[in-house]
Amino acid sequence: MSTLSSNQTPLRRAGWAVTVYLIAGFAWIMFSDALAEVWFPDPKTLSMVQTWKGFFFVLTTGLVLFSVLFRQLTRDRALLALQHGQRLALRKRERQLQVLMDNLPGMAYRCRYDPQWTMLFVSRGCARLTGYEPEELIENRVTSYASLMDDEDGERIFCEVKAALANDKSFSLEYGLTRKDGSRIWVWERGRGVEEEDGTVVLEGIVLDISDRKELESELEELAIRDPLTGLFNRREMSRVLEEELERARRYQRPMALLWIDFDHFKDVNDTYGHAAGDSVLRSISRLLLGSVRSVDSIGRFGGEEFVIVLPEMGLDEARDTAERLRRKVAGAPQPLGDGKTVPLTISVGVAVYPEHAQNGAALCAAADKAMYLAKGWGRNCVAMAHLHDQVHNES
Ligand SMILES: Nc1nc2c(ncn2[C@@H]2O[C@H](COP(=O)(O)OP(=O)(O)OP(=O)(O)O)[C@@H](O)[C@H]2O)c(=O)[nH]1
């Protein structure tokens, strides 16, 4: 319909121009002939006047035709120059966009909003990011983008994109991706939904490799929860683990034990062999303890030469046996000083158990610490259980 009406407009305009020209022309001929016959009755003069009248008509219409054509051609030329300039600017923008996309530390994409994330376009960075050439991912020719995503992320991502589309907002996602060579990377994606002319929705955005940042983050997280010397949990993390395990024990009505370990006469090791040798002993006993407990148990360094072990689902008897086993193991293994020599070392262990000795973390620690001092008092290299009456004292 619109093509038809735009075709009719120039036709109508040309028709009007010709009609006006014909009416004016016929009127001029008739009117001027009649006037000439009245004003110049002499046939010779009349013939000359008509000749000049003809010249005048041709000259006038020629001038009109010239001015119309001149105006139209000038306009056409300006239009062509404008189009040429626009084409050049468009090409320049395309080139800039291409350079930008090719140098993205990731890839730009355009994909269908479907469970496969079917790619319609991916920039060249796709090969660097995923290991797949753009042609391999486009239209899922070799594999779909969804199959590269971690399975557990799929559902979450779909929900987040759905919510963003519903609110007409852009979405930001972080998820793991498996590359063609099997290596895993972390990516950050930002995109938004775009409605096509036919009403279907496609997604457009960028995907960047953030593996380095993720690695740094997890290193920082580890640093925040680990004791730098021994690599065991630090006091803060250990307190958190203790509260978490206590909560679990409370919920499932299960016992839980806490061992409070202190090295005997450790000051002598430092004083005799030096601080570096003391550090070596601390590291060695940490490894020994770590290798002597279950995977569900947690060990932390509470400070100096004090260590705490949380033993989930462990009652009084088993906790006593575990503490005794650890005491014997340390006593039976001379500790390396770092210079090839070793030194014998013993530990004193206090044992407190939930729910018998205490109901909360602080009270459980206090009961185990108190029991450890009891073991020191017995002459060291001993295991002491917290007293049951401590519970009354702790909770009061
Ligand atoms: N090498 C080293 N020594 C430490 C570190 N932290 C604490 N210590 C030392 O551990 C020693 C603890 O000594 P004390 O608390 O007096 O106890 P002890 O000598 O072990 O004697 P008892 O606990 O009574 O058996 C001190 O000499 C501290 O300097 C550490 O990170 N590295």
CATH architecture annotation of the largest domain? 2-Layer Sandwich
Biggest sheet, strands in spatial order? 2-1-5-4-3
As for the number of domains, it is 3
Structural class: alpha+beta
Q: How would you describe the shape?
A: rod-shaped
- Unreliable segments (pLDDT under 50, ≥5 consecutive)? 1-5, 391-396
Q: How many helical stretches?
A: 12
| Whole-angstrom Rg | 46 Å
Kindly report the average pLDDT value. Answer: 92
**Quick one: CATH superfamily of the largest domain?**
Reverse transcriptase/Diguanylate cyclase domain
EC number: 2.7.7.65
InterPro entries: Diguanylate_Cyclase, GGDEF_dom, Nucleotide_cyclase, PAC, PAS, PAS-assoc_C, PAS-like_dom_sf, PAS_fold_3
Transmembrane segments: 14-31, 51-70
Keywords: Membrane, Transmembrane, Transmembrane helix
